Every structure is written in structure tokens, then in C-alpha cells.
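Figure 2 data, in text form.
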Amino acid sequence: MTQSQSTLPNPFNTRSTFTDASGAQHSLYSLPALKAAGFAIDRLPVSIRIVLESLLRNCDGKRVSEEAVAELASWAPKATRTAEVPFVVARIVLQDFTGVPLLVDLAAMRAAVHKLGLDPKLIEPLVPVDLVVDHSVQVDFAGSAEALAKNLELEFTRNRERYQFLKWGMQAFDTFKVVPPGIGIVHQVNLEYLAQGILKDTHGTYYPDTLVGTDSHTTMINGLGVVGWGVGGIEAEAGMLGQPVYFLTPDVVGVHLTGALSEGVTATDLALTITELLRAKKVVGKFVEFYGPGARALPLVDRATIANMAPEYGATMGFFPIDEETSLYLRGTGRSEAHVATYEAYYKAQELWGIPEKGQIDYSVDVELDLSTVVPSVAGPKRPQDRIELPALKENFVSAYSRPVAQSGFGKSADSYAQRASVELDNAKAEVGNGSVLIAAITSCTNTSNPSVMLAAGLLAKKAVERGLSVNPAVKSSLAPGSRVVSDYLNKTGLTPYLDQLGFQTVGYGCTTCIGNSGPLHPAIEDAIVGNDFVAASVLSGNRNFEARVHQNIKSNFLMSPPLVVAFALAGRVDIDLSREPLAKDKDGRDVFLKDLWPTLEEVRDQMSAALKPEVFKTLYTDFASQNPKWNEIPSSTGNVYEWDSASTYIQEPPFFTDFSQTPGGITEIKGARAMGIFGDSVTTDHISPAGAIKKTSPAGQFLSEAGVEFADFNSYGSRRGNDRIMTRGTFANVRIKNLMLGGEEGGNTLLQPEGTKLPIYDAAETYKARGVPLIVLAGQEYGTGSSRDWAAKGTRLLGVRAVVAQSFERIHRSNLVGMGVLPLQFKEGTTAQTLGLDGTEVYDVVGLSADVKPQQDLALRITRADGRVEEVPVTCRIDTPIEVDYYEHGGILPYVLRQIIGAAQ
């Protein structure tokens, strides 16, 4: 042992060695060694043990104490959860929508340090950070061989300023790397390339690959046995700067999988079934761990599809342990044989090898699922957990048309359902109406990483073309693979021409439709939808279908497998029972049913050998710069401190460190607040955070117009996340958000009090700010569901909102609110804004808030009504952990971390 190794921490005498297949010895922190210290770790869930290894390795008495190690090593399945886990992750992944504002914040922190006369290099990521540019490509062009090149050209034109900024970040920060546009979706790139399974530090110590990412679907990597999940950009920045990711010790839900999928059932159907099942089991904020013979038999790509959907079932993770299948995948995707051999030896030495059987692990809750009971399914029309068996889709859609909005319906008159409109397209005529499929997109990380469903889509397209079928001209169809590997195997199997012929030409390598970058519809179709208020549909192989996410004028959105996307594009409507009704007529006038086109499992397996070729992965994931000339053409500024351009409409120095002081402001009661909005259940981060297209008449649109930006160059909110002036104006501006202060009408407006004047939320917030009036938001269940959008919290803070009072919160958004210095408060069971009869005319005080506030303590919301009546309602302070109290006192994570860094340097 070298001198440097001998001085390394050795908590509970766990520093040890393991031997790889070549006989070489390597260092590790041994989990089995904890048994000698009296901890029964054999019964712990595998995911808990991997987090425990991080605590052991980072146990320095400061960030991580021996008490924290002992507490997690003593994890009990049904204990009350009060302790926080200080999890130090190995690396961080970002996508560009969340990564650019994160880099903006780091640049602002450097500017703040520089202004104080200190070395700006004090602000430097302490763990490797990889940013994948995958959220910026939009489907402006589709249905042609030139679509890919044209969309990429437009992407670089629109985002040149952002990409210049990213290139500055690459040269300014030592540990910050960028995967340029046109390579793939962050989670598929992570799975196929970035993830290594094990890593080695400068002391030669091996340890598990762990991470957090600034995108909810970071959990996809759980399919590879890697512990990781999505956090807001705010938490990720703290992690980059050396802070542990703190979270409450979790419950772990064990999902025992048995049986096998039947003929005609896809991994997507399984993922949607698990999403529905686990949402009903209320797994929000919990780890989910899959085990049993059904889990062991699932191919890794199917495991990744299920893990990807963890945010949709609400879990922190959807974890599959490490076994032969993970080794097989690492080899198949180009990782070296020597690396895989060391990987296997490490996990065997840690007694973490193999998927457990029933009874081997103690879980907080056990859930059973027989895979043979899974049937073809879709999910929608507004939420990913609302699964519909395929034969029931027609009846479900027709009934939703006239069902009340409060019951996930559209609230239309049944008499208007049959209304249709004829539209003149460029080279064709089409009829559109309620239930018409107008967008059909094979897109998103969830399914485009899975060769079985992608090949099934290609085989279905082949059979359709051979029968002479075509896609309705009103349908905007597109294919956005998660990586270039997909294009390689679709080409090698000869399936690409058939997808092309049906309009599923490749439009780009990015998230596209799944994140709202579906691009414009034909103007005649837009006019017909808006003019007739049609409830038209999109079908996509994505993971999110919240209102106004896919396209602002498409109200009904269904998630499904890639082959079903092709099938519904052929049918042209969702009000059809594909199990019994023909989806089209062939060239001879004969009815064609879905069963005639659906590929068998054997047909898909015959094509699978082309999918995982190690040499293809090695070639496509080497030297990105030489493969991307457009990226090389982008110039970048240099230097350690960014030179802000006051005229930029993309990148601006945020106000978070204006008048920065080393002394925090403290914690005091909130007094005299007004309600900015009262919202119902399931308000998503898509509703709160600016996303999608920028309307010309919106506050953000007016700001851009006044800055001289042409409407055609507005780009999306996501692309402008580096400019707080635009993002604050777009917060709560979603066209589908319903403020109950206005009777539930759609749109981002509120009533300015006490006048009762109707104004856009931004304009009202500016008026309140000028008056010195703090704001609160009132909401129902699952507030902040959806993507880990840090701007949902940043924008809330910059509008002047001091507290959000909800019936319940989604995990990441609650954490992000605290991270921005906004107080989350939770109504007691049975209490809601509605039971209290709140209408927004009240004045609110938060009573009991002081410097000695404790995690999850009770406070009081004092309500003074317009007629002078006063009522106090108990609420729970959802500052959940002691470190969050510190964050809140400092006005958020970033000021807290900055003060820590400056304090250590002085």
C-alpha cells in the first residue's frame, strides 16, 4: 500500500482488495466487510447497498460521517424515514435545455467570485460532467429525404449563440465535456457510451458508476444496474461543486416479476402496465427494485425501457441489479473485454452479482406482476399512467370527448363529435376532425433505445408497404432515433426504405416530439383544428403526454410502442378498435387488419443480430468533432470569466447573485401575501415552466418583438433558458393551465388584488413587486409532476412567490423550490383550497416560520378574508431535511454553496 493509500479513510475497516480474472489486485471499499461490524447487509436491497458504498468511500467526517454510514447500513424496510442520506455521486449528465442554464449559473458564480477579487477557478466541477445536446432539434421538416439535413441546419442557425456559450464552457471548465448535436438522446448516449458500470479514482480504488442527471429520465440507466436519477439543475450544480445529493432514506418497493411476455406484446406495453400498477401503489419518492425470474429473463434494453419510465410511476428509481445480462450489454456496445472482466470481478467481490430471488431481500413493500398478463396497451390522453388496453381505446376516446374536464375529459357536446373539415394541403386533400391522428412520432429515449420495438416498427412498415398501404396525408409522421446506432441497424436489416415510404424518415437525433419540439403543422390543418375546436390526436413512442406538451393545439396525446405508432398513422384516427376493425384497405381493396401486419417475436429476433455490434458503437462514439463539421464551425470565446452581452436574447447574467453578501438573510415569517394563482390537481412542471413555442402575444413574445427579434426566430422557451428575462415572463404562461381564481379558464392569467383586474401572471407579479407584496401559490395533489425543470422553481422565485401551499408535491419540484428559497407547505389531509373556500381575494401570512424551523414541522397559514374574517390553518413545512433548512436560510442552494466555497478560500 502506498503512502497516499495508507492515509485514505478506512471506516469500519472496510478498505480492501479484489482480484480480477487476470490475477491483478485492485482496491475497493468492501461492503461484505461491514458484516464484521455487525451490519446485516445481505438483506439490504441492492440499490441501498450501492448508495451505502458511496457513503463508505466518502466518509471523511465532514460531508459524510460514520453515523450516516451506520444509519444506512442499518436500513430497516418499514422504519419511519427521518434521516437524510448524503450521497456523493460519481458523475453528472446534463441535457442542453437544463444544461445551458446550469452553465449560466456557474458562469454567474464565477463572475461573483471574480468581483470579490478571488480566483474564478474556485468555481469548478469536482466530478466529471457530460452535456449531451439533444433537446434543440425541432421537426420543422418531415416526410422527405432532406428532413434530417434541413432540421440540423435550422437547429444550428437558431442555436448558434447557445452553442458558442457551450463551447466557452468546454474550454473554461476542466471537467465539462459536450456531446454535440446530431449524435443522440442523452439517456441513450448514457446507456450506450457514457456509463461504464465501474470507475476508478486517482488512488486506484474501484467503485460503482453512479450519477444524477438534469432530466427526469436519467433513471433509464437503472436498467444497466447503475444507481442514478433525475434532479433539478439546481441540485446538480451543488453536486458538481462538491455537495452531496441529500435525500430522505427511502422505502424500497420490491417488484417481483414472473412469467414472460406473450406473442404480440412489447416492452412498451410492459412499461405502461408497470407505470399504471406502481402509480396506484403510491411509490412517489421511493426506490423501486425489480427482481425474480421475470426480471432476470428480460433483455437489458427492455429493463432500460421500464427504468426510463420511473418518473411516470413516480419513483426515484426503477432499478435492476447487475448480472450476466448487464455484462453482455456492455460487451455488445463496445466496452472492452478487460473492462467488463474487472466489472464482473468487482461486483462479485461486493456480493452484488445476480438478480435476487424471492425471500432473499427485505423490501418495504412487495408487488407482484406476472408478465404473461400484460396485453397491448396505450396511455393517455393526458397522463402517462392512464393506461388503456388497445381494444378499449375507441370507446375511451369517444367517452372522453364529452366527459367533464375534471374527470380527464374534454367537456365537449357529444352532438359535435361527428363534425369534420376538409383541408387543402400542398399536394393533396384530407379530412380532419375529432380523433384524427395529426402527429405520429417514433421518438424519445424510452423506446428508440430498444431494438426489439424499433425493428418491430420497421417490419410492420415493410408489410404495410408490401400491401400497398400509405399514411393519410394529414398525418405528420417522423422518426427521431435515440442514437445513430438505430439508423445503422435499420439500414443493415433493409427496413429503412419501408419506414421512409410511409413518411417516417429520420428527422434528427434528439427528443423532438416528446418534449414539444414537434414543429408546426400545415397551416390549413392548424386553421381547421383551431377554427372548429377539434380534439385531434398525436401518437408517439414517448414517455410524456401532458396537456400542450406535444403541440399546443393537439389536445389528445397517446403513448404507445413504435409499431403501434406506425399502425395508427396508417389508420389516421384513434377512434378505432384495431383488434377488430380494419385499419385500411390494400391495393386490391381488401381489408387490412393490425394482425395482418404485426411481426411475430421470431421475425423480430431474426433481425436482432444486426442490432448490437460492438464495432458500430466504437466507430459512432469516437471523435465527435470530426463527425460533426457544423459543430466545428461554431466559434467560441475564451477565458475563465464569461463576457456577458447585454444585447443577447439567449444568454444573460441571472440576478441570483446580484448584491451578493457573505451573510445570509435569515428566516422570517411571510406576511401580507397575495395569491398569484389557485390551481387544481396534477399541475405539472410543463404547466409551470416555460416550454414549447413562444406565442407572439405573450409577455415573452412581446419582449422578443421589442428586442427586434422576428417571430420566425423566436425559437422555443427551452432554447432560451439561459435568459431569465424571457423565462420569468413565460412562467405559469402555459395555454392549458387553469387558474381557479378565474373560474378555471385556460391560460396564464390572474386577478390582481384588491382591484380584481385580469392580467397576465407576469404583469400582475411585476405590479405586486412594485408594491412590495409577496406572493403565494395554492394547489392540489401532485403539484410539480413531470420533468425536472429547474425553471419551474427559478421562475416561481423570480415572479416573487415566497411559498407554495399544495396538497402534495412531486419529489424533484419540491426539492427545487427549496433549492431556490421558495417555501413548500402542505395542507393537512382533507384540507384543500376548495374546502376552505379560497378565491384569491384573501391576504395570507405564514405563521411560526423562524430561524429555528425544523424539517417537516407544523406551521400555520393565516387567512384574512376580504370581509375581515381571519382563520388559521395548520400546514406541514415541506423543508424535509436539516441541510434544506440551511439552503432555505441562505436563499437557496447556490448562495449556500457559494458562501461555503468563498469561506473556505478566505
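Caption note: The mean pLDDT is 94.
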